[in-house]
Amino acid sequence: MSLSSRLLKAQGLPLRNAGGAYQYGSQVMRVPKKVRGLFYQSEGMRNMYHVIVLGGGRVGGAIAKDLASDPGVKVKVADKDPKILTRLSAEASIGTIRSDLSDPQKVKSLVKEHDLVVGAVPGFLGFRTLRAVLEAGKSYCDISFFPEDALQMDHLAKEKGVTALVDCGVAPGLSNMIVGRLHTELDATREVSILVGGLPKARIWPYEYKAPFSPIDVIEEYTRPARYVKDGHVVTMPALSESELVDIPGVGVLEAFNTDGLRSLLKTIKCPNMREKTLRYPGHAEKMKMLRETGFFDNTPVEIDGAKVRPIDLTSRLLFPMWKLEEGEEEFTVMRIEVVGMKDGKMLKHIYDLLDTTDKKTGMSSMARTTGFPCAIMSRLLLNGEYQRKRVVPPETVGQDKSVFEKVMAQLHDRGVIFRHDTRAAS
Question: Cα–Cα distance between 255 and 147 in angstroms, integer?
């Protein structure tokens, strides 16, 4: 293969540049300066794409740094925290904008000069940010865990002729994508089970937990009613309910409890039994239920000595420092997806296992990697035109496209995020 052909083939992939040496998968090419521009000069592509990442926290920062590693992508990050912006600009070639992202009009103004927008805001801002970006006529790749139904914005995305990839993280995200892929391959899907969690390696009393992403979104997981499908009917249960102990290979015994992680799968996948549970060290769910039922997670103000205080604000002030993942503190992400269904008259069980840990070389947390990398990969596929559906697209729909699914999984593998896939007979 000629050098120019290899360069063109490499477009859109995470190209690591060190003095003109570009990495494509496991291959390294030394590229003369005069031909480096060929990476982004194929038909329909320009020399430079401009991407803005809304939210520069642990996951948003990971997405921004991954995208900024491409010579053909210029990245800016918008966030209200100057410390976050200073850190990111020091760590990578990233432009920064200090802005309050709670204002939809400001969001529209920020995104108007960019080719693609990436959403990494807290869940309570997610839906209004999605709407603002679509109204601005920009394509969007989002990881925000918001309670509203993103598919309500499908008409707006179609009207504007843009793509909105939502829930594009690890779970929801990769979990949905894998379910979508297997649902397409099977003749009939009978059962879906998703177990997922991010945990610190060190179990420190009293909570034995550290929040690897926005802590307020963790609280949202513990308060939002959990929906699952049983015998063809949608069942709604309190979050943290129906706790059970599970033995996870390579980790040990964890507890699994109901959370509202199926999301769009409830509408898009026809399957009589589907469930998603969050994994924590045993005993965590009971502690969280005690706090929730006592009212510590409530948003309604209570009066104390003449002053009105929201319980969730007090809880955040006291609890979140204890949940902070400190610099150098190791954590891991574990996920097991089981899908049972018929294929050619045989009942099969597909199992996808993921066990990912903090990258000791870069210090990047596993949750930032497993949540941020899928979003960065799909952002590239949008930029280079390899994914072009003009509508709101949930991750299971992405997974139904075999070519795109294989590209996502291959590029995750290149980054060290590796799934093990096993297929066996099921009763």
Answer: 24
